[in-house]
Specification:
This is General secretion pathway protein A. One of its GO terms (molecular function) is ATP hydrolysis activity. Helix content is about 40%, strand content about 15%. The protein has five domains: about 100 residues, Helicase, Ruva Protein, domain 3; about 170 residues, 3-Layer(aba) Sandwich (Rossmann fold), CATH 3.40.50; about 40 residues, no CATH class; about 120 residues, Cysteine proteinases (Cathepsin B, Chain A), CATH 3.90.70.10; about 70 residues, Orthogonal Bundle (Muramoyl-pentapeptide Carboxypeptidase, domain 1).
């Protein structure tokens, strides 16, 4: 309903597990790495748990898009099955033909084992993924454990990935599940988003849906975090209702009353008194900090100093509520006089100048006390270097400045307006082409500058910057027309993994590639087609053979061209435009 009003081409906060909208927080990256690891190892269980709505199923959908060619996947999303029903479902997922009347456990088990042996002989790997695995019965879990016993002399025949809510951790920790627990080779618990990640999450989904407009002002994101506790599904529901409310009222963005109204619709009228778990934890840690300060005033200093390191680390990691302001370190925290048991006594008086004589004992006198020294303050580490975003929120200006920095390196004269999409169309006339890729952010050190990078600051919208040079752990960066020097590690932390570069198009416009052609031009066509297909380019002799001819036909049919298998002018232009069209998401 509100999509055209805000400029979306689809709803940005749908609760369906669409991998395109997956926001890869640090926790989600680690969780996906565990799942990908599960596709590579040989046998055993991989366990991914998390609270309701944290994104486990969406991560699984993302995993399914990255399954290697040699893997066969069986996905069970309704685990409330008997043992026979689970085996039948597994056979159906693997396209195992079952004769009529077969239904016994042994017969199903034998059929499955025979199929897995055949797949292994062909070099294929079989992976079973079970969603909502906390609903599996003890009998079915034991059956899954027995399935991991299927093996050859060298390989396990079945890898199992279990996705479930927090209760699944408690189930596998039971004494009667110790045999299954010993076969878990990797496990990860997915936590909700942090406060800065909530803002980045909202901006990410808005951008994927087609807009970079600030529809949720920064002060509102704090309230959104406290309402949702950082749970992505709750964020989606709240934002969807809030955008609908803003649309009905004719507002250009969501404001606080609209968000509160959406929260009442989602949670009911009593939502104000229901603090999310993450907020409750933050409030509890803040209270603990206050009591610890009071204790320092009343208790001997060495007692507090003994546990100071662990307490400081917890306080540093805990989010601080927006309405809580820490007391100045120079002023003691006042002790409440009423309302707390044990606080009605008189204040503790300072000790007299001459301490009272210690009571005598029949054994021997205690050794003299060592004077108490104040705790030595721990050294304060300098703040970690970070990449700050532009001072203004003029996204189009920042994009134009990043484009000029990149294209200027190639001495490519571009006409105004110099947005990324328009600039890439212009440089096609100069035998240049734009390529857009998304890779692991840790690979930044291996990419040759200059590049346009998409960066996501800790608290602010994503922006484009141009990497000009890199040397010995330092980088030179253009941000909003300003040249900065930034540590490579800091830049890697803020990089989304998306980049744009310029390349010289190797293929002459007037040349036609046909069956039997060899050379670098053929290798370039193979590379472009591989990127379009989502596959790896071929290795070896760059020959235009029958396989490449068929791939060219497929490409031509998909783009409405004459499917003759010949790379002519029109097909070439489509191949060159691959990088430009894929890059449109960064340009908008």
């Amino acid at each position: 309903m509100y999509n055209p009003y805000f400029g979306f081409f689809e709803a940005p906060f749908s609760i369906s597990p669409d991998p395109r909208y997956l926001f890869m927080s640090e926790r989600h990256r680690e969780a996906l790495a565990h799942l990908l690891y599960g596709l590579q190892i040989d046998g055993g269980f991989v366990l991914l748990t998390g609270e309701v709505g944290t994104g486990k199923t969406t991560l699984c959908r993302c995993l399914l898009e990255q399954v290697p060619e040699h893997c066969d996947i069986a996905f069970i999303f309704n685990p409330k099955l008997t043992r026979q029903e689970l085996l039948k479902t597994l056979c159906e997922e693997l396209h195992i033909v079952l004769p009529d009347g077969i239904g016994g456990l042994k017969a199903l088990f034998d059929r499955l084992n025979a199929h897995l042996l055949q797949s292994n002989a062909k070099g294929r790997k079989t992976v079973l993924i079970v969603d909502e695995a906390q609903n599996l019965s003890a009998e079915v879990l034991e059956l899954l454990r027995l399935l991991t016993n299927l093996e050859t002399h060298r390989h396990k025949l079945l890898q199992i990935i279990l996705l479930g809510q927090t209760e699944l951790r408690d189930i596998v920790a039971r004494e009667d599940m110790r045999q299954l627990a010993q076969r878990i080779v990797a496990r990860y618990h997915l936590e909700p988003l942090s406060r800065p990640e909530v803002g980045a999450y909202v901006r990410h989904r808005l951008a994927v849906a087609g807009t970079r407009a600030v529809l949720f002002p920064p002060p509102l994101l704090e309230r959104l975090y406290r309402l949702s506790g950082g749970t992505p599904r709750l964020i989606n529901v709240l934002c969807d209702r809030a955008l609908l409310g803003a649309y009905v009222q004719g507002k250009a963005a969501v404001d606080r009353p609209t968000l509160e109204s959406a929260a009442r619709e989602v949670f009911g009228p009593g939502h104000r008194s229901r603090a999310p778990a993450a907020v409750a934890a933050a409030l509890g840690v803040t209270l603990l900090a206050g009591l610890a300060t009071v204790g320092w005033q009343l208790a001997p200093a060495p007692l507090f100093a003994a546990g100071r390191g662990a307490l400081d680390s917890r306080l540093a990691a805990a989010p601080l509520p927006a309405d809580a302001t820490p007391p100045p370190s120079s002023a003691p925290l006042p002790v409440p006089a009423t309302g707390v048991p044990g606080r009605d006594e008189k204040p503790v008086q300072p000790p007299p100048s001459t301490p009272p004589t210690a009571p005598q004992t029949q054994e021997h006198e205690p050794p003299p006390e060592t004077p108490l020294e104040p705790p030595v303050p721990e050294p304060v580490e300098p703040p970690e270097e970070d990449v700050a975003g532009p001072a203004t929120e003029d996204h189009w200006l920042h994009e134009a400045q990043a484009v000029r920095a990149l294209f200027g390196h190639w001495q490519a004269a571009i006409r105004q307006p110099s947005d990324l999409d328009g600039a890439c169309r212009q440089v096609e006339e100069m035998s240049l082409r734009c390529l857009r890729q998304q890779v692991d952010p840790q690979s930044l050190a291996s990419l040759p500058p200059p590049l346009i990078l998409e960066l996501a600051p800790a608290d602010g919208p994503p922006f484009l910057a141009t990497l000009l040079a890199r040397d010995e752990g330092r980088t030179r960066l253009v941000v909003a027309g300003e040249v900065r020097e930034v540590a490579l590690a800091a830049l890697t932390r803020r990089w989304s993994g998306r980049y744009v570069l310029l390349q010289q198009a190797p293929l002459a416009r007037s040349r036609r590639l046909t069956l039997g052609t060899r050379g670098a031009d053929v290798a370039w066509v193979d590379l472009q087609l591989a990127r379009w297909e989502g596959q790896q380019p071929r290795a070896g002799d760059p020959l235009f053979g029958t396989e490449l001819e068929q791939r060219v036909r497929n490409f031509q049919q998909a783009h409405g061209l004459l499917a003759d298998g010949v790379v002519g002018t029109q097909t070439l232009e489509r191949l060159v435009r691959l990088g430009t069209t894929e890059m449109a998401a960064l340009a908008r």
